[in-house]
Amino acid sequence: MKLRFDDEVETFRAELLAWLAINRPSAAEMAAEPSVSTGHAPPWARRWTRTMFDAGWLVPGWPPERGGRNAGPVESLVYIEELAKARVPRTTNVQGLGIVVPSIIDYGTDAQIRDYAMPILRGEATACLGMSEPNAGSDLASLTTRAVLDGDHWVINGQKVWTSGANYADFCFLFCRTDPHAPKHQGISIIIVPMDTPGVTVRPLPEIIHPHQPDLNEVFLTDVTVPAHHLVGELNNGWAMANGSLAHERAMVWVNAVMGLEESLTTLLAEAPALLDRLTPFERTLAVDQIVQVAIDTQAARCLGYRGFAKFARGAGAPEQALMKLYASEARQRVALVAAEIQGADALAAGGVANDGHHAVDEPQGTWLEQYFHSFANTISAGASEIQRNIIAERILGLPRN
Amino acid sequence: MDFEFTSDQIELRANARAVLEAACPAAVVRAVYEATGDGTALWSRLVQLDWPGLTIPEEHGGMGLGMVELAIVVEELGRAVAPTPVLATLTQLVPLLQAAGSPRLLDEIAAGACTGTLALAEDGGWHHQPMQTTARRDGHAWVLNGVKSHVLDGTTADWLAVVAQGNDGVGAFLVPAAAVVATAVVVMDPTLPIATVTLNDVTVGGDDVLLEPGDPAAALAIERALQTSVTALACSTVASCRRLFEITLDYAKQREQFGRPIGSFQALKHRLADLYLSVERAASLAWFAALTIAEDDDRRAIAVAMAKAAAGECQRLVVRDALQLHGGIGFTWEHDLHFLLKRAKAGDALLGTAAYHRAHLAELLGLAQPA
Ligand SMILES: Cc1cc2nc3c(=O)[nH]c(=O)nc-3n(C[C@H](O)[C@H](O)[C@H](O)COP(=O)(O)OP(=O)(O)OC[C@H]3O[C@@H](n4cnc5c(N)ncnc54)[C@H](O)[C@@H]3O)c2cc1C
Ligand SMILES: Cc1cc2nc3c(=O)[nH]c(=O)nc-3n(C[C@H](O)[C@H](O)[C@H](O)COP(=O)(O)OP(=O)(O)OC[C@H]3O[C@@H](n4cnc5c(N)ncnc54)[C@H](O)[C@@H]3O)c2cc1C
Asked: Which of A73, A315, B167, B205 has the smallest count of CB within 10 Å of its CB?
């Protein structure tokens, strides 16, 4: 156990920081052409992705031809931390770079890698993730969007919902039912569907915060036809692949959540003197205790994340990673709530979420109350907190299923 | 940055656990609870294995290990609810001797020839300023007067490090047991025995003056020593909680009601998931605190207070749910569960509760004026 990073890691960090200082997009550049959805990559974002790709800084853990430099897991962690500290988004298309690309690389054909993964890595395309449906949210495996093979092409009918970024994405990584007679987890396949295919209709679903820039969408698919070779991986193996691709995310995604939490705490501590000054002595005591608890949560999230990461980096099972999604998302919810409550009636002022160019990316933005509402994105999506508790209880603790 | 234990540390834990499983089964704890036995044989075994010298430098006959190793050992003691002088001697007295730069007693402690403790609290408070216990200069010596509360192992320790107030600040003094009047408090958890210690004109001189009042380094040295004590108790408490959690989890898998294991009910699943999170949260903070001490990182004061606060918050949840989820059986004296329940509670109550440490954090984070 140790707190300090090894010298090689510090060398890596120094190299990254030097490179970032020269190549990063400026705050002004990002704000001038803001990304308005996780499927939207404005020109600066496309240039930035390409710049990182060419320099091997897009996915440091991968080989140079995939935008990396064969960095180890600790270096990759430092990379994510430093980008977040510099407030430079790694991508505006989080589901594309974070989930779709690794899945295609793991399970796709060479042609799919060339035509769909590489364009995302070079900043030329974006993707959305079509999993949830009106009747398949937490119970994703009950999805019913149907794909039928008809000669050399798939015919797809159904509906997706909550599809982040579908209003701007170039293609969808679509989860479809391909065997309606198999047990529900065994009849699902993944098919790549370009969003401009006839029969694909997108209806944005404005959210409770920043409704003028919707990220969520409904996606309707009516007799959508795509070539048979758009099937990713094995037929009817979609469920296993979904779990595989999400694992990519879990190893690192906690870092962004923790950095967001730390940023919120730093802001709250800076605002605290003025906020506390307006309170009666007893209210103040109560408020201070709430802030202290948030500070403990924040440090704990960092330490728990590091603990899980240390095991992951050794290739060992890391149950802490399953805890992190639950803990960090709920802790972020608490910090925003604590701050908003200390603000009292002032919390009601609608700040309008300032878009500094990449608001769809996971950073605290907007007023405290806006942040609080927004924080539910993370306690609901990618497995709601209740589902996380079920998973922890059943898969980690080994409690019997009902 | 690496939050994984080294292979030596993992081996130390495995050895410690094996030793305690053999030398400190529940029957030993029960005997202490029922006053039909004590921890003497256990301590002899630990002395035989050189445990008392764990953190004492090799030149004094110890193993020269650091804070992380100390944390591992006290965790295993907390897990076993072991009735030993280790907490008082190794995590309260020795750190103070070390912070004061004093070689006094180190050889004897390492050899298992004496034990010790720290006499700090007064009237149940851990942070009296000024201390009510006074140190008055008398020629080259000092004369101590006052009453210390909640002294761990207060009636059995051979030596007490007493923190007392002089005219120019606090100091620390080494006092032999024979010089004080120690009265045992009848406590719920006899594995962490405590006493009230009265000092009537106790004269201390020479090397036994560990930190002179007026020494500008004294207050800081005491604070740093206490950081070790607090972190160790946090580690021990979290480990008791982890064991409680494990036992409760096993019980929930085995106990059947309504024709199925009670652990299959979602109401209990979610509680068990939250207990697990609470234990891992507190453990991570406890290890972080141990690391800041081991590496003398400047976040150590905050990390230590967070560790003890989180340990207290953890036991609050785990003690409640462990007892509740066991139903009637956990409510009985015959069941071993209550040894851990009480040890976990004691771990919060001693050296400052979670609320005490959160209040301290408020000061450290600049949210409140120091009292
Ligand atoms: C901001 C955001 C972005 C999203 N992005 C995408 C995306 O890009 N692509 C995509 O496919 N989907 C996306 N989703 C959808 C997301 O994955 C689902 O919202 C999520 O899986 C929950 O499904 P649901 O909304 O249908 O709620 P439901 O599944 O109906 O759940 C409602 C409530 O019931 C609880 N519940 C459900 N089952 C259980 C159970 N077994 N035990 C206990 N409690 C239970 C849930 O925890 C929740 O509190 C996004 C969602 C949000 C909020
Ligand atoms: C002080 C005391 C006095 C008592 N006096 C008497 C008496 O005079 N006469 C008498 O007949 N009995 C008496 N009892 C027994 C008492 O009624 C039982 O202890 C109680 O019914 C719980 O049963 P159990 O202990 O077997 O726990 P269990 O039923 O095994 O329950 C264990 C845990 O599982 C939980 N659990 C069980 N089923 C579910 C479920 N479906 N969903 C969610 N959680 C569940 C419980 O809430 C509990 O937390 C007494 C108990 C105590 C503690």
From this structure: A315
* Residue B166 parent element (H or E): strand B159-166
Taking only the tens place, the pLDDT of each residue in B302-311 is: 999 999 999 9
> Which overall architecture, per CATH, does domain B219-364 show?
Up-down Bundle (1.20)
C-alpha to C-alpha distance for B180 and B210, rounded to whole angstroms: 18
Token pair 């609810």 is found at B81
Instruction: Give the angle subtended at the CA of A259 by the CAs of A255 and A260, to the nearest 5°.
Output: 120
Half-sphere exposure of residue A146, counting CA atoms within 13 Å on the CB side?
Answer: 8
CB contact under 8 A, B1 and A292: no
> Which of B255, B256, B257, when mutated, tests ligand 2's pocket best, judged by the most ligand atoms within 8 Å of its CB?
B257
Are A246 and A98 in contact by the 8 Å Cβ rule? The answer is no
* Tokens of residue B309, six digits: 């606060």
| Dist CA A49 CA A256 (whole Å) | 18
Is the minimum distance from the CB of A95 to ligand 1 under 6 angstroms?
yes
CATH of domain B7-114: 1.10.540.10
The answer for residues whose C-beta is within 8 angstroms of residue A348's C-beta and 6 or more apart is: A369
Phi-psi bin for B310: left (phi > 0), alpha (psi -120 to 50), beta?
alpha
**Max intra-chain CA distance, chain B:** 78
Its sign, for the CA torsion B182, B184, B189, B190, is: positive
CATH class given for the domain over A127-236: mainly beta
Separation of alpha carbons A162 and A207, rounded Å: 10
- Structure confidence at residue A400 as a pLDDT band (50, 70, 90): very high
In chain A, which residues have their Cβ closer than 8 Å to the Cβ of B290? 1
Tokens of B149: 């509360």
SS3 A146: strand
Domain spans in chain A, listed from the N-terminal domain onward: 7-92, 127-236, 240-396
3-state DSSP assignment of residue A350: coil
Where do the structural domains in chain B lie, given as residue ranges? 7-114, 118-216, 219-364
Q: Can you identify the CATH homologous superfamily of domain A7-92? A: Acyl-CoA dehydrogenase/oxidase, N-terminal domain (1.10.540.10)
- Residue in chain A closest to B362 (alpha carbons) equals A292
Whether residue B254 lies within 8 A of chain A, CB to CB, comes out as no
Please list every residue in chain A whose beta carbon sits closer than 8 Å to the beta carbon of residue B354: none
B307 token code pair: 């560790």
Tell me how crowded residue A167 is: count the other CB atoms within 10 A of its CB: 23
DSSP string, A168-201: T-SEEEEEEES-TTS-GGGSEEEEEEETTSTTEE
Which whole-number Å values give the CA distances from B165 to A272, A301, B161, B168, in the listed order?
A: 35, 40, 13, 8
Radius of gyration of chain B (CA): 21
CA distance B267 to chain A (A): 10
pLDDT band at A322 (very low <50, low <70, confident <90, very high): confident
CATH fourth-level superfamily of B118-216: Butyryl-CoA Dehydrogenase, subunit A, domain 2 (2.40.110.10)
Q: How does pLDDT run across B269-324, given as a tens digit for each residue?
A: 999 999 999 999 999 999 999 999 999 999 999 999 999 999 999 999 999 999 99
Q: Ligand 1 in contact with A371 (CB < 6 A)?
A: no
Residue with token string 């059995």: B156
CB < 8 Å to A289, chain B: 355, 358-359, 362
- Whose alpha carbon is nearest atom 23 of ligand 2? B327
Closest atom, ligand 2, to C-alpha of B329: 25
pTM, rounded to two decimals: 0.97
CATH ID of A240-396, from 3.20.20.100, 1.20.140.10, 3.10.290.10, 1.10.10.10 = 1.20.140.10
Cα A373 to middle of ligand 1, angstroms: 16
Nearest CA to ligand 1 atom 1: A377
pLDDT band (50, 70, 90) for residue B129: confident
